[in-house]
Amino acid sequence: MALEHAILVSLLEQPGSGYELARRFERSIGRFWTATHQQIYRVLRRMEADGWIIAEEVDQGGRPDKRSYSVVGTGREVLAAWLRDPVQPEAVRHELAVKIRGAAFTDDAGRTALVAEVERYRATHEATLARYLTGEVRDFPAAAPLDDQHRLQHVVLRGGIAYERMVLAWLDDVLDTLRGLGR
């Protein structure tokens, strides 16, 4: 997937400025695709030049005008074509998994260091899960009926929640295994 596709989806959900897009990437789109502010602005310029999006100058009353972007017909056609393309499974490259396998070839100090690294790694996933769960409560109240757009957003978030729970369960298993070596 190119960043352009993630931006098209986000702008179709809600037009906005580059700053607003960057905030969405930090808050929700970042659950499955990350981008820096610089990358977003660079891609927005290219998409505008290619005729996929248009920008409207919005007066901010005393502050500099902002450019609010929205998708035009060509951008919708690009997204529709991309949605029809088959998706190939991602190749997994997991450095931590290789380190865990390598623990068989190190001493107690190396294993102790690896346990600390797995614990640190686990804490980052625990924090991510907490953010996802907080976002779910905030953005998808249980009693609120959801339109199709929000139902699709929620199913992606539920996938992220399930993934983080799976990673945490695996890391707990890894820690139990590492701590039990040599016994």
Q: Strand content of the residues, in percent?
A: 5-15%
Which class do the helix and strand fractions yield? mainly alpha
Biggest sheet statistics: 2 strands, antiparallel
Distance between the termini: 46 Å
Shape: elongated
Largest sheet: spatial strand order: 1-2
**What's the pLDDT, averaged over the residues?**
91
Number of domains: 2
Model regions low in confidence, pLDDT < 50 over at least 5 residues:
none
- Number of DSSP-assigned strands: 2
Protein name: DNA-binding PadR family transcriptional regulator
Keywords: DNA-binding
Pfam families: PadR, Vir_act_alpha_C
GO molecular function: DNA binding
How is the topology of this model organized?
Blueprint (H helix, E strand, L loop, with lengths): L2 H11 L4 H10 L9 H13 L3 E6 L7 E6 L1 H12 L10 H8 L5 H32 L8 H33 L3
Antiparallel strand pairs: 1-2
Helix pairs in contact: 2-3, 6-7
